[in-house]
């Protein structure tokens, strides 16, 4: 089982040019898994929270494509807050980690690259069930 310390912020390679900057991500190269799903969150109202779940097998790369927000990661024993505010960084969230998102800035866009297609049976949406899954 992964711990919150196994979730790391990755510096993404950026090509800077006079015309702007570009970051490219490739399966099994700059991302350690094959991306099967891409989605993004935006227009999150002031004060709203997102997340509030864990996954059995899905892992994610999460980026602040615009603006900023905070992830609260929880492995059942330890919690860790990670502030994302740059499209040049990605948070790699491992399977089995509870995640909550908060403090979205105005106009923020949260871009998520996921290792699996959407599968409701992969979600753990109840925190007590999450703790049971972690503690056997």
UniProtKB/TrEMBL annotation:
Domain of life (superkingdom): Bacteria
Gene3D superfamilies noted in UniProt: Jelly Rolls
Residue intervals of the Sugar 3,4-ketoisomerase QdtA cupin domain: 6-134
Record-linked InterPro entries: QdtA_cupin_dom, RmlC-like_jellyroll, RmlC_Cupin_sf
Coiled coil: none
Protein name per its UniProtKB record: Sugar 3,4-ketoisomerase QdtA cupin domain-containing protein
């Amino acid at each position: 089982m992964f711990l919150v310390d196994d979730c790391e912020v990755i510096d993404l390679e950026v090509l800077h040019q006079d015309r702007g900057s570009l970051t490219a991500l490739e399966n099994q190269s700059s991302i350690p898994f094959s991306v099967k799903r891409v989605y993004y969150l935006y227009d999150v109202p002031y004060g709203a929270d997102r997340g509030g779940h864990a996954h059995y097998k899905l892992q994610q790369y999460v980026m602040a494509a615009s603006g900023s927000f905070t992830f609260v990661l929880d492995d059942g024993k330890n919690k860790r807050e990670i502030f994302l505010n740059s499209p040049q960084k990605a948070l790699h969230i491992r399977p089995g980690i509870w995640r909550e998102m908060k403090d979205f800035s105005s106009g923020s866009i949260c871009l998520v690259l996921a290792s699996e297609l959407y599968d409701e049976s992969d979600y753990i949406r109840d925190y007590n069930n999450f703790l049971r899954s972690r503690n056997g």
